[in-house]
C-alpha cells in the first residue's frame, strides 16, 4: 500500500512537471516571435512537384483562384494588402501593358503616344524629331515621346518600380523615368518622383516635384553608370514609400531621400508609371543639332511590385541602414541557434534547384570553405533552396545570407518565398543593401520574414513555404554572383556577461594585449568622448591610421570563445558622408559615402590576416553614426570558423584602395571582449530553431513506465 502511495505521489509530481514544461514550451515559442506555435501544427510533406521548377515561378490562374488549399489560398498576383486595397504585381513578359495618349496640359508639354495594336513593350521605341509646326508640339520646336503604364483607373500604390531602359545618347536630350501623381493637389501642377538621364553626359539626376516646384534635384555623376546605360539595356529602379525614396541605375544605388525625416511634401499614390524622352528645356531646342535627329531611346519590361503603405518596420533610419539590421543587433537576443540551409554544405533536409548552372567552390571570392557560385545571365535564371519539410512562413524572424557581386557587381535580384511551383511573396534584395551590391565585396543581408507579406482569403489559415528563391529583376546579363551561409534565425545569439576575455575596457588594454605596432593618429586613453565616465580609444579614420592588437600571451582558439564583441561609436566627417556638400556642423540627411573600415583577424604568427570584414557591409551598407552601438561578431562572420582555427590578434584599418587624403571621421571604442554564447536550451540543442521539446517526450515516457508498474502492483 505504501509503495502504491509512493508511486501515486511520483505520478502527481510528474504531472505537475509536465504542465510546467508544457507551459514553458508555449512561452518559449511565444518569445521567439513565431505566429505558429512550434509543435502544434504538423507540416505537410511536399509532393513530387516541389522539386520541379518552371522557367519563372509564378502562380497561374488556377492557383490564384485558391484551388490549391495547401497554399493557404494565396493569390500570388495579389501579395499585399495596403489600406484595404489589393495591389497587382506585374512580371516581365506577362504583364498587361497600356499606352495612354496624354494631353498638353502641363508646361513645358506632355508627350503623347497613340495606342498601339500590340500589348508588348519589347524594345519599344521612343523617338523625338523636329516638329512640322509649333501647333503640333504645343508651341515647341522639338517633339517628345512618352510611354505610360497604368493600372486602370486605380493607378499604382507604394512599391518598387523598375524598367529596362536604353536612354537616348544625343546631347541635350533627357530620358526620364517618373512616377506621376494621378491628381495634382493644385490644379494642373505636377507632383512626381523621377530619375533623369542626360544624353551623352556622365550625369544622372534624381529628385521630385511637388505642385510644380522642384523640391529636390540632386546630381549624381558617375562615368561607370552612365557609360553602361548608353551601351546596352540597363535596369532603372525607383523605390517609392511614404518615408523615403531610393533610386537605382545599373544596379547601383545613386541616391536616397528621407522625405519623412525632412518633413517635405512628396507625391502620394495613386501614381502613373512613365518613361519620357524629351529635349532638355534648360538649354532650349536650338541646342540640339538637327543633324542628329530623329533621336531614339528604347524601353522594355516594366515591372512593379507593391510594397507596404509605410516602411515603419524597415525604413532607412537616421542611423543609416534598414531598421531590420538595427532590430537584429539591438533587440532582445535569443539563445536559440540559427538553422543553416547552407554552411559549406547543403543541409540534409534541403536541396538546391536552379535554372542555370550553379556549383560549390572555394577558389573565387573565398570566405570559409565552399560557397555557391551562380550566373544570372538572363531573366529566366533562378536558384532555389528547397526543403522536403514545409514550414510556416513566419516561424522564424529573419532569413540571413551572405552575397558577393563577383567581378561585375550591380546585381538587382528578387528574393522570393516559395511553395511548390509558386511564389508566395517576394522582395528586392537591393532594398536591404544600401548602395547596391558592389563587386568583390561580401555583404551580410538580413531580411525580416514579416516583410514577406501574403494576402490570404482565410486569415486563420497558416501559410507554409518550402523554399527561398533568387531571380533577376530584369532580363539582362548580371554575371556570376556568390552566396554563402544561408540561414533562418530568431535574432543575434545572446552572449554571457560574466564569462569573457577582456581585451580592452575602461580605458586600458588588458595584460598581454600589445598595440605597439599600431600606426597613425589614435589615442588609447581619450577623454574626448567617454563611455560611462571611462576613457575610450579614439581612432582617426584615415588610411594611414591602423590599430593593431597582438595577443602576446598566445593565440586564441575558436574553441575557447564564440566571437568578439565591440562597443563603439562612429562620429562621421559630414563633408565625407555628404560627398563634400556639408560642413562639420551641418545635419546630413542624404548620406552619399558610407564608412569604409575593416576588421581583420591575424593568424597565429601575428602578421598574416584572414579575409577582412567590412563593418558597413556587415550592418546593411551604412554603419550607425553618433550613437554607442554594441556589435557581437561570431567567428563564422570573421572567416575563422573551421576546425583548429586560432588567431593571434586583430587589425582595424581602412581598405587598401582608400584615398589617403580622405578623412572619414572618428571611431571611439569603449570595450573589446572575446565572449561566450549563452548555452541553448538542452531540450533543443540538436534541433536549432525548428526543434521540438525533447523533455516532454522523456517525461511522458517516464510517466508511462510508472503507470505500468502501478498497474502490475
Automatic annotation (TrEMBL):
| Keywords assigned by UniProt, alphabetized | Signal
Give me the ranges of the annotated region Disordered. 29-48
Signal peptide, first to last residue = 1-25
Keyword Transport belongs to the record: no
Question: Is Transmembrane helix set as a keyword in this record?
Answer: no
**SUPFAM superfamilies linked to this entry:** Concanavalin A-like lectins/glucanases
Where are stretches of biased composition, namely Basic and acidic residues?
Answer: 29-38
Provide the protein name: GH16 domain-containing protein
Native species of this protein? Answer: Dictyostelium discoideum
Per the UniProt record, the lineage of the source organism begins with:
Eukaryota, Amoebozoa, Evosea, Eumycetozoa, Dictyostelia
